Structure formats: C-alpha cells, structure tokens
Hints:
- With 230 residues, this protein is of the alpha/beta class.
- It has 6 helices and 8 strands.
- It has an 8-stranded parallel beta sheet.
- The relative contact order is 0.16.
Amino acid sequence: MKNLITSRQIAVVLTGDxxxxxxxxxxxxxGWIELRVDCFMRKYPEKDICxxxxxxxxxxxxxxxxxxxxxxESQNPGFIISDDQRIFLYQAIADYVDCFDxxxxxxxxxxxxxxxxxxxxxxxxxxxxxxxxxSLKQLHFLSKKAQNLxxxxxxxAVKTETEKDLFQLCQFVLSARNRISVIAIPMGKQTLYRLxxxxxxxxxxxxxxxxKTAPGQPLLSDFIFNKGEA
Length: 230
C-alpha cells in the first residue's frame, strides 16, 4: 500500500492498549487519531480516561477525534453507556481533543454539536451500519440532516460487499462533498475497498493500531510511508 495515500488521509484508532511513549512517531504516519473512549471503558476504569487522553495529547501532533460510541452503532452492541454518561464523557475530554464524533441518529447529537460550538471544536456526525449497505437516497438524506445540525463532516460507514455498493458509495462522496466534507468507509472483507473512496474526495480512512475495530479495517502497520510524504 506504499505511496497510495498520504498521512493526512489516515486516522489511526486508539483503544487504550497502545504504548504511550511510542505514540509520538505516529504523527508522521497518521494525520488523525481517533480515541475510542467506549473501547477504553471496556478494559480500563472510567477514572483513567482523562489521564489516557491527556497523555496522548502531549505525545502527538495529529488532529485528535474523541468519540464515545453509541451501542446501537457499535461492533460491541452489548456494552451500553447511557446517554447521560456519554455526554459527561464528551465534556470530560473536550479540552484535549480537536474534534468530536457522535452518531447522527443518537439523541445526544444536538448536545454534542452544542458542546463543540462552545469549545471551538469540529464535529463529525456519523452513521454506521454493520449489516447492510444504505441506499444513495438514504445517504443523501443523512448528509442533509448532518448539515442542518451543524456538522463539519459526515461519516458513513456501511457494509459494502459488492462492486456496485462501492460504486454507489463513491457516487455519494462525489455528489455530497461540495456541500459537506465526507468520510466514506466501506466495511467488508475487501480491505482495498477502504482506499477507493479517498480517490473521490473522502477525507480519510481508518486504521487500527493494536486491534481492528470494524470489518475490513487495516492496521497502521499495513501502510508504509517515506518520511517526506507525511
């Protein structure tokens, strides 16, 4: 995968198992870092979240995205964090991240957008479907709803099993990107599918560091860059 994409097109996902001391070098490979607070909470005490987030903030120059995934759009649907607790966690990490990611269909989406506005942060409103591909009509509806709520970006991560699905996802990126920045993630067995939307204007794709958090997700080690490309 060397030379296919730049560091600005990669968001590496952290879940708490990483070696904090080794994170500094990640900035040259990934322009974005997503902190999956919900994944962290499955393994470590809640009281350690801010310690974790602060330590990462000190180590990296990448843009940091903070998210507390809604169980209804998670790969771990049995792990439930209440809406009130999710809002509390977004507030707790607000000063140490550059951007929030919250699900467009979640009840707390307007609250997180309001928090981002007050704190001067960017917002990704996201939609995840691990079971099926969303229609173009539905994707456009979601993008307009995200715009109306005040999103800076919309992320659509949908199951993508066929070339037709991939083609339609790229069509969506092309037609929506002039209205709102789009992150399009095809989830499925074909890891290469993850790279294709980037050629059509998708902002970045995700890579795991110590674990894969979605179907077809590559690891950061799958991408090799020369330092000058970052």
